[in-house]
């Protein structure tokens, strides 16, 4: 009540969710003639943005009440790492969407779409070179362009085929873009190898598995970081009261140490052509070649491909035919969120 000035309207299915339509009516009814009225308006607007844009769920009509304490300490809200929290929410949603029985995603799809369209040119709705120059906010340039009819007519099978046979991947689409000074303080999250936290949500930021995105050569991947199931599958259903500083204490300590896990401080080798090294090619083909071209798999036909039997590592790097399309699919499927390999 201290935030909205009255008792909020809750979801009929869960007392932990607040109806966004009700919050918008409170916001729009503010006269904005006093500082207190302006503060209440801004708090309502921020709460609506959290529930409908940054941390949207499948309902889009309600937002979780767990965000209310953030609005209570209004003067500190600008100090929070909203970018890392949004990534944690996105990674968790992608993990849940990978389940075979999942039909919808509760995720900021605009963030996911823009990431894909900027890098995977074969599935972008319009040719990337026809877009206006990239500037902040980057996503806006996609909203001012008309999508092609051929893209609108694509089927799921066609998208899968295009990803399997991808010939181009734009590793650094924002190279040379001028970033406003007020955003520089948040860039330390981009290339860290550290946990991302959002209340009950713990996800791992695997920047060391996509090093070419940061201009470095990619070595063979190390074992993915394991997050215990009792923490990774934690869900806030019903009324729950947790002290996150205790429940997630060790992970918070790792997050606080993120400045010491930046890729650029680990002295990686730079790359200019983004072509994978022979060592990485050999490792990848021995590990994941059987999972390529899955769009051609016929469930009514032969059995699904199986992983190869373990082979001793050769003493010298062995070059095997490795098309660029395989490289890009490899990184997209197994480099961006491969921490899922340690999850159920």
Going by helix content, strand content and strand pairing, the class is: mainly alpha
Question: What spatial order of strands do you see in the largest sheet?
Answer: 1-2
Unreliable runs: 311-344
* Alpha-carbon Rg, integer: 22 Å
* Helix and strand sequence: EHHEHHHHHHEEHHHHH
Number of strands: 4
Q: Note the main sheet.
A: 2 strands, antiparallel
* Distance separating the two termini: 40 Å
What does this structure look like?
It comes from Arachis hypogaea (Peanut). This protein is mainly α and 344 residues long. The protein has 2 domains: 17-80, no CATH class; 81-344, no CATH class. Helix content is 34%, strand content 4%. It has helices at 20-28, 35-54, 68-72, 82-97, 109-119, 140-143, 149-152, 156-164, 229-232, 244-247, 249-256, 278-288, 324-335; strands at 17-19, 62-64, 195-198, 201-204. The strands form 2 sheets. It has a two-stranded antiparallel sheet with strand order 1-2. A hairpin with a 2-residue loop joins β3 and β4 (201-204). α1 runs antiparallel to α2 (35-54). The two termini are 40 Å apart. Residues 311-344 have low confidence and may be disordered.
Short overview:
The chain has 344 residues and is mainly alpha-helical. The chain has helices at residues 20-28, 35-54, 68-72, 82-97, 109-119, 140-143, 149-152, 156-164, 229-232, 244-247, 249-256, 278-288, 324-335; strands at 17-19, 62-64, 195-198, 201-204. It has 13 helices and four strands.
């Amino acid at each position: 009540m201290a935030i909205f000035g009255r008792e909020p309207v809750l979801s009929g299915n869960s007392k932990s969710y607040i109806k966004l339509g009700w919050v918008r009516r409170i916001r729009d009814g503010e006269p904005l003639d006093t500082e207190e009225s302006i503060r209440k308006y801004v708090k309502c607007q921020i709460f609506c943005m959290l529930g409908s844009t940054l941390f949207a769920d499948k309902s889009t009509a309600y937002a979780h009440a767990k965000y209310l304490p953030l609005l209570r300490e209004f003067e500190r809200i600008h100090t929070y790492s909203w970018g890392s929290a949004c990534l944690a929410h996105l990674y968790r949603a992608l993990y849940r969407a990978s389940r075979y029985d999942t039909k919808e995603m509760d995720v900021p799809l605009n963030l996911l779409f823009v990431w894909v369209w900027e890098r995977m040119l074969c599935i972008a709705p319009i040719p990337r070179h026809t877009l206006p120059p990239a500037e902040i906010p980057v996503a806006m340039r996609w909203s001012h362009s008309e999508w092609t009819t051929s893209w609108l007519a694509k089927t799921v099978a066609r998208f899968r085929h295009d990803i399997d046979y991808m010939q181009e991947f734009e590793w650094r689409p924002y190279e040379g873009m001028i970033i406003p000074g007020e955003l520089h303080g948040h860039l330390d999250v981009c290339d860290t190898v550290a946990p991302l936290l959002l209340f009950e949500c713990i996800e791992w930021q695997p920047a060391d598995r996509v090093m070419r995105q940061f201009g470095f050569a990619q070595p063979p991947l190390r074992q993915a970081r394991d997050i215990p199931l009792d923490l990774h599958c934690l869900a806030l259903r019903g009324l729950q009261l947790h002290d996150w500083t205790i429940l997630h204490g060790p992970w918070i300590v790792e997050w606080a140490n993120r400045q010491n896990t930046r890729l650029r401080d680990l002295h990686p080798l730079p790359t200019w052509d983004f072509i994978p090294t022979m060592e990485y090619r050999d490792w990848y083909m021995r590990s994941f070649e059987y999972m390529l071209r899955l769009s051609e798999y016929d469930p009514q036909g032969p059995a699904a491909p199986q992983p190869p039997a373990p082979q001793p590592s050769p003493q010298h790097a062995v070059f095997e035919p490795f098309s660029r399309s395989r490289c890009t699919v490899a990184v997209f499927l197994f480099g961006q969120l491969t921490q899922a390999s340690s999850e159920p």
